[in-house]
Amino acid sequence: GRSARWNACTPMREGLCHFYVYYSVAPQSVVIATAAVASLLAQVRSATGIAGRVRRRADDPWLWMEVYEDIADRSGFAATLERLRAATALPACLPPGKAFHTECFQDFAA
Predict the structure, then answer these.
(1) How far is 61 from 66, CA to CA, in rounded Å?
(2) pTM over 0.70
């Protein structure tokens, strides 16, 4: 699997990138995780100006995805996101052996 580290997104051409970070949340940790992800989104917005959002999978409420769009500085954003996430309770809310997975997408050129 891919880790949340930047190397999952490195081989990309220049241009805006959209980050999709998905992970499983332990059912018993959902209250703490909800507060932690809300705090993370606020901190990311304050630090980067990027307003992220969180979603959960329709058929699996324990699989969550953070979405951050229109990222110009991919490596800087990835480092900031990782640093801010590590300072929250969110990593402790994942089930044992689970990790954050990051995918980066770009729009097709017009």
Answers:
(1) 14
(2) yes
**Strand-strand pairing, 53-57 and 101-105:** unpaired
Q: Characterize 75-87 residue by residue with b for buried, 16 or more Cβ atoms within 10 angstroms of its Cβ, and e for exposed.
A: eebbebbbebbee
Please state, in angstroms and rounded to a whole number, the distance separating the CA atoms of residues 17 and 105. 6
Other Cβ atoms within 10 Å of 12 Cβ, number: 11
- 3-state SS, residue 54: strand
Q: pLDDT tens-digit profile of 66-78?
A: 999 999 999 999 9
Nearest Cα residue to 20 out of 52, 51, 43: 52
Q: How many CB atoms are closer than 10 A to CB 67?
A: 14
